[in-house]
UniProtKB/TrEMBL annotation, chain C:
Keywords: Signal. It holds the Pfam family SBP_bac_3. InterPro entries: Solute-binding_3/MltF_N. It comes from Thalassorhabdomicrobium marinisediminis. It comes from the Bacteria. Residues 25-238 form the Solute-binding protein family 3/N-terminal domain. Residues 1-20 form the signal peptide. The keyword Iron does not apply. SUPFAM superfamilies: Periplasmic binding protein-like II. This is Amino acid ABC transporter.
Amino acid sequence: MGFYWSFLTVLTLLAITAPLALIFGFGGAIAARSTIAPLSWFGKGYIAIVRGVPDIAFFLFFVIALDQGIEYLRHKIKCPDWPDTIRQGNDFIVCQAAKMPLGNAPQWVHETYGYFIAVFTFAIVFGAFAGNVLFGAMRAVPKPQIETAEAYGMTRRQSFWRIIVPQMWVYALPGLGNLWMVLIKATPLLFLLGVEDIVYWARELGGTKTPRFTDYPHGDWRVWYFLVLLVFYLAFTRLSEIVLDRVMRRLTAGQATSGGEAQRRAAA
Amino acid sequence: MMECLDTIADYGLRSIGIGERLLPRENFTLCQQFTLIGSGMLWNIYFGVLSLLAGFFLATAVALGKAARNPVLRKSSEWFIFIFRGSPLFIQFFFAYFLFLALKGQYPFFDPFTAAWLGALLVLFLNTSAYTGEIFYGALQSIPKGDIEAADAYGLSGWSRFRRVIWPTMLRLAWPAYTNEAIFLFHSTTLVYFSGFPAWQQKGDALYYASYFADKTFNPFVPYPILAGYFILLTLVIITLMGRIGARLNRHLPQEAKRTRFRFRPQLIR
Amino acid sequence: MKNLILTTAALALTSSMAFAESHSVVRMGTEGAYAPWNFINDAGEVDGFERELGDELCARAELTCEWVTNDWDSIIPNLVSGNYDTIIAGMSITPERDEIIDFTQEYTPADPTAFVAMTEDLDPANSVIAAQTGTIQAGYIADQGWTLVEFATPEETIAAVRAGEADAVFADQSYLAGAIEGQDDLIMLEQTVALGGGVGMGLRESDTELREKFDAAIQSMKDDGSLNELISKWEVASLFE
């Protein structure tokens, strides 16, 4: 049963992470473009550093750091007069009210929380990549468009939201589409974050089972389980390619690009 | 300080089997962690550089194959790209290792393939060829028509037209995306020992040593950030080197045009 | 899921109120991939020697317990950062671990480490020995100067011997016994090595009160012989004297 559920786990992860990463990326790109120096450094630093680190390495320590960070903040807010220090030797101890989720919450709450921490981590990593793509796309909007907007008396802010943002998507889409493909293929790393995903179950169920511990003993079946995963990933990639292709065609319509020009000519 | 130099002498090349045989067991110092993880980076660089260089040529062939009129050539290139781009590297490693094991049982020729230095290199090589092939194919499709017409007008055809006009233009257009692919490839080298191939005599890559320390010190907050630091440095080096080559590829363009060409990172980052 | 909350002990009995508040539910962290110690059964629940032992200990200590699985690699960092309260996962008591966390008294004696190979006549010094990455077994092989090959999971170590990649697997005897059961091609060798201490429950160093409770519960199971019964039922280790 867990095996089938885990497919859903992966699909929901993708469904939540993609928009969240886009938001992070958008934020990062805006920050990087900012005229305020510290904000710009922050945006550029975020994009450069997170992009520079292999995602596995990031996952291996970031989840625990994030978890402790959240609890630390909650501790400061909820228990301002806590007598003990938080780090006692090796232990990280916050007051009970600051626990995330609360220590006595049922197991499914813990699992859901762990899942969202994982989603958040994915979003941070892929947000950096999305930020890089969007940053490039914002700069790719033809300069005359912005100059025209200025000539019409728009402020920087107005021209950003009314001219750049609507037009940048067509430039960003190929990059974002690719990012989506990379994101799909990064999901097998989910098991590193303590989420029981398809790889976890493929290993668990496919591993050799001796008759002592199960009613259904079998040898090393991991190959077959992994084959199922392979087919799943290939099918999902193909589907994404078809959808992205359609979206691209729609977005290109009426744009001042060679693709848009070709469409216009074909229609005429 | 002297102590640290000793450590570097002992463990600097540990990942390729030179130096102290036993890994540190207790009283782990920061210096040991930096040295051993850095030593592991040698493998990441080895995998990355070799598969990138070899993959460059196969990728050109695959891109031309995908653009070819011959249906056999086109279909096989398309499938090659689809399979390797459509599945996680993690699963590719799994199947490759399994396949090499099976082949090894039949033919002694495949003996070295179950070792990471060859087997994993082969997988990474094919993987990056597929990704790069798709990038090159995209660039090939967007070569300005005028360039090819101009080549025709100069009387260039066949091989010389390809070598002098099409190929350099393709590279120029593909370069920013190719830089990204190179970065990703180096990052994926960390998967080799993590989930694909076994490590012999505790000779592994940077991630292998980082997780060794994380496991022994029970503290993930030191070794993994060290690893991250090394990779950020490596990424900077890649960006600089690729930027130099890219600038050389674009050296004939007027300065202003060069900037506009490079402003936008197009199409296919991986 | 319905079986996860097993004991509804009367919490009013616990001595200190602060303790009762912080441990109204004790979360038991395990790996779920190390039969017969702990594994996921056909119904998808934690099962095995430690499941049964842990439930009994919680009943005796009058605690409400809940089972959680966590990857072996990060099982200690997650304990000290408070994601669960105990580790009960076949963890040997070693001085290195003891510096970071606290252990209860051992609930099984040291489990000997054994070899599994295709043939009887194995000379470890001239063979390729497979072990799981980062285990004390892997460290021991490296210490001896034997040829070590490390795999990410125990499953792969056994597959490697069958495929001829390695000559033998070096791992806990109880794990190997379960893993090769019903498979004629692999043999467990007579030769064993004593590695590590006994197995105990891991707790945060600051959680003294909880540790004392489990200590007392383990002692009472030792005293009335029920611990030995469990050990022989699951064949995880030798018995206590």
